[in-house]
Amino acid sequence: MTINTKRFFRCNSRKNLLLILLVAQLAACTKSNKLKSETFKTASGWGYSIAYKDKMIIRQSIIPVISDSKSFSTEEDALKVANLVEKKLSRNISPTVTKNDLILLKIKF
Fold this sequence. Notes:
Elements: H1 5-30, E1 35-41, E2 46-52, E3 55-60, H2 75-90, H3 99-104
Antiparallel strand pairs: 1-2, 2-3
């Protein structure tokens, strides 16, 4: 009795590749983002905070980059900037917000 070794290894390599892809898919789905952004009400508008593993790392009560000490006019504006900063942090990029970022996000200031 002879076994066709090429066919045997080809079938096993397909199964192994399928198993590796399945494990990679599960690992990607279970990866949790430990960053969490929230908005909060200020005396003159809205601000945002970002926490990492339930520890606050950023609390921004005024619009960054502009010369006035002014809060965000809407909760949506504060959330847009918070999401931008969260994305930058998750990509290991400096979380600095520029005036151009505010213009692209259509933030009123």
